[in-house]
Structure formats: structure tokens, C-alpha cells
Design a protein that fits this description.
8-stranded mixed beta sheet, 5-stranded parallel beta sheet, alpha/beta, 13 strands, Rossmann fold, 2 domains
Length: 322
């Protein structure tokens, strides 16, 4: 891939030059107008990385538009100085990738440019701990990656309530932390079945902006809505016979099935029984016992530092496998 850089960061630029997947076609450009000048000379450019802080008379929004006018298929990655809701909204609406300057690395840039993202449907019955587990995974993944959690519940915003956040009716995405965002389906549609295409198209439009998208499905029945776009299913199961009976007839298509046994204890149903349900086409990632530290975490604005050490180790193990 041929790339133009305007990073004003010699260290990262040198690291990018070592990557076999890309070819930087010119020296690092120190000013905005210089990007347009290079584009006139270099016709076969697939991506441009721009630090918003580089000098230039032209506004960043106008620069983006002029680049798109020259080549509508070009990938543009903007490096932002800091969080700015209006600027981020503009970038997302115009399908522009972005990262933050803080903790920026060459690997993050490569992963973002090549859209190395994964869409995971987190599914489970009511009371399985699905939403809390999704949020915990989102917290851990967002330490190094950009994560979007899709809150599929159109009746209420459970995740936003956990974080004590409010979202305006006209907003779809709210930032929780530096790399963690929540997408509220409730603000997009009033009915899943009648608006299936609208939901899928909206996720497709923004998916390249994130490394991971976790869909906290409303229930097992809504899973089929997302089959078109997901890479794998993450099934949260309470390992008892009643819960097993509820899930044994669900259709997970041919997607990769990974399982977390939640609220696990010595009386839990056999792992072999669970695997047989899916004809051994499933992997049990981890067994999570109930911990009082869950309540501590939730009561302290979902601060994962309150999780006990054993749960933390198991969550990290899950992260390595998804």
C-alpha cells in the first residue's frame, strides 16, 4: 500500500518505513497544503496519515474534502490532539478513520489503516451477566485498542446507566473513556425487525473506525439480525440445566462459537454436555465464578480496578483468545 505521511513525528515515521505492508512515497510532509501538492504528483496513493497539528492555512475539514475530490477511495487517517466531540462526529459521519496522539504507535496506525477489526456478538439469556461481561471486556480491550460497544437494547440503555452517562436523543455514539465508546440502538430505531437494514448499514458505516465492536445483543432471538456482519459469537452461559435448555435450539450459523461459563461453581453442568450441544464446534474460553467484587466495581462507576485478582487474570486470558 502506498502511503503519504504528514505526522510531524520522526520516530513513528521511521517505524512505519520498516513495515513490509506499506510504502511511504515521500518524505514526511510538514504542512497541510503539501499533501495536496504530493497528490498531484503521486497518482497511486491508497492512504494518507495526517496529524491535525501540522501547519496550514486550509482547515482540516476542507483538506479532507479536497483529498476526497481527488480520490474518493483513498483512506484518510487523522491523528487528533485530544477528544473533541464535534470533530469526531464529523470524522465518523464522513467515514474518516482517526486515532489520538496520546499513546500513538506505528502498530496502531497499521491496524487502523488495514481495518484489522473484529465484530463480536455477545449473546446470552436474560440474567446471564451478558451486559456486565461485555462492558468488562470492552474496558480491558480499550486499554490498547479502540472499542465500540453496541447497546442492542431498544427498551433502555443499561450500559449507559452502568456508567451513569446520558445520551441526547439526536446522538448515536457517546464516548465513555479514551478508547471506549457506546452506540445506542435505542436512539436509531424503535423496532428491530422493521429497521434491520438501517441498523446494519449504520454499523457498516462506522466499523472501520474501531478495532473491536462488541454487540451486546438484546436477547438470543435478536442474534440473526447481526449474522451478516459478525466475525464470531461469544456466548455467555450460566452452566445449569435450565439455562442449557433455553439455548440448545439456537442457530449460531457457521460462525466461530466461543463460550464463557458465567457464575460457575462446583455444581455446574459438565463442559462435555455444553460442547455436545454445538457438536463440538465450540470453545470454552473461561469459567468465571461469581465474585462480590462485581458489585464493588459497578457501585464505583464501573471501575475495573475493584475486580479481584482472580477475575482479572481470567478476563485477561479471555482477551488473549478473542
Amino acid at each position: 500500500m502506498n502511503i503519504i505521511t504528514a505526522l510531524n513525528n520522526e520516530t513513528i515515521n521511521e517505524e512505519l518505513k520498516k513495515q513490509k505492508e506499506i510504502n511511504i512515497v515521500s518524505r514526511d510532509i510538514p504542512y497541510r497544503e503539501g499533501i495536496l501538492e504530493i497528490l498531484e504528483k503521486q497518482q497511486n496513493v491508497q492512504a494518507i496519515i495526517i496529524y491535525e497539528g501540522i501547519y496550514g492555512q486550509i482547515k482540516i475539514e476542507k483538506l479532507i474534502q479536497q483529498i476526497k475530490n481527488k480520490n474518493s477511495k483513498i483512506i484518510i487517517l487523522i491523528i487528533l490532539n485530544k477528544k473533541e466531540n464535534l470533530k469526531e462526529k464529523y470524522l465518523i459521519e464522513n467515514k474518516i478513520k482517526y486515532l489520538y496522539l496520546e499513546n500513538l504507535t506505528a502498530q496502531k496506525i497499521i491496524d487502523t489503516i488495514f481495518s484489522r477489526n473484529k465484530i463480536i456478538a455477545v449473546i446470552g439469556n436474560e440474567g446471564s451477566g451478558k451486559t456486565v461481561t461485555t462492558a468488562i471486556l470492552g474496558e480491558y480491550l480499550s486499554k490498547n485498542k479502540k472499542v465500540l460497544i453496541v447497546e442492542d437494547n431498544i427498551k433502555n440503555n443499561s450500559l449507559l446507566n452502568i456508567y451513569k452517562k446520558n445520551i441526547k436523543k439526536e446522538e448515536l455514539i457517546i464516548q465513555i473513556k479514551n478508547n471506549l465508546f457506546i452506540f445506542s440502538i435505542k436512539n436509531l430505531v424503535e423496532n428491530h425487525k422493521k429497521n434491520q437494514t438501517k441498523i446494519i448499514n449504520e454499523i457498516k458505516k462506522i466499523k472501520d473506525t474501531f478495532n473491536y465492536i462488541l454487540i451486546d445483543t438484546q436477547n438470543i432471538g435478536s442474534l440473526k439480525l447481526y449474522n451478516e456482519i459478525i466475525n464470531e459469537n461469544l456466548l455467555i452461559i450460566n452452566p445449569n440445566i435450565l439455562e442449557i435448555n433455553k439455548i440448545k435450539n439456537i442457530n449460531l450459523s457457521n460462525k466461530n462459537i466461543k463460550i464463557i461459563l458465567n457464575y460457575y461453581n462446583e455444581n455446574a453442568i459438565s463442559e462435555d454436555i455444553i460442547k455436545n450441544l454445538f457438536k463440538n464446534n465450540a470453545t470454552i474460553l473461561e469459567k468465571l465464578e461469581y465474585s462480590k467484587s462485581y458489585n464493588l466495581m459497578i457501585n464505583h462507576n464501573f471501575n475495573i480496578n475493584y475486580l479481584d485478582a482472580k477475575i482479572k487474570r481470567k478476563i485477561i486470558n479471555i482477551i488473549k483468545k478473542i
